[in-house]
Amino acid sequence: MVRGAARPERPARPADVEEICLGLPEVVLGRSWGDVPTFLVRGKGFVRYRPPRSDALDPVTGEPYDDLLVVETSGPAAHAELVDDPASPFFTIEHFTRSRSHAVLVRLSRLGEISRAELAEILTEAWAARAPKTLVRGLLGG
Predict the structure, then answer these.
(1) Using an 8 Å Cβ cutoff, are 74 and 125 in contact?
(2) Contact assessment for residue 103 and residue 129, using Cβ atoms and an 8 Å cutoff
(3) What CATH number belongs to 14-140?
(4) Which of 7, 33, 41, 134 is the most buried (most CB within 10 A)?
(5) Over the stretch 95-120, which tens digit does the pLDDT of each residue have?
(6) Can you tell me whether residue 56 is helix, strand or coil?
């Protein structure tokens, strides 16, 4: 490595999800949708682990994905930015489209396709989409 050169950002890891989310203001790891582990800000979920379901299947095995994370977005533009890029590990399913949800899915096993910094930005934006505006201004300004 060249002295003084910027260090390359490391790939994101599944453990980063909890570290990043719990590092945001007023976030707790609670439960929603029955007993699903969910990161909440003042009672509103912004990231949750999704149990295997028949509406999100591995196209190779036909089995339900068992490592999904649901991430809220701020709206259609943010949703499209994550799912429309073919190089992105984020995707959506018909269930979300029918319910007009702007949430996206990502497999924990594919988080390494983005950097930890990118993951932090995405999770912070999910938090900001659900947190009270005064709390968002306190963290992000504006």
Answers:
(1) yes
(2) no
(3) 3.90.1150.30
(4) 41
(5) 888 878 899 999 999 999 999 999 99
(6) coil
Q: Which amino acid is at 3?
A: R
> How far is C-alpha 54 from the chain's CA centre?
20
Q: Print the SS3 string covering 62-92.
A: CCECCCEEEECCCCHHHHHHHHCCCCCCCEC
Phi/psi-derived region of residue 32, left when phi > 0, alpha when psi is between -120 and 50, beta in every other case: beta
What is the DSSP code (8-state) at residue 23?
A: T
Numbers of helices and strands, H then E, in the chain? 5, 5
d(CA 83, CA 4): 36
| Boundaries of every domain in the chain | 14-140
DSSP 44: E
Exposure string of 17-50, with b = 16+ CB inside 10 Å and e = fewer, is beebbeebeebeeeeeeeeeebbbbeeebbbbbb
In sequence order, which residues have a C-beta less than 8 Å from that of residue 95 and are 6 or more positions away? 55, 56, 101
Q: pLDDT digits over 29-74, tens only?
A: 999 978 999 999 999 999 999 999 999 999 999 999 999 999 999 9
Our measurement of the distance from residue 89's CA atom to the centroid of its chain's CA atoms, rounded to an integer in Å, reads: 11
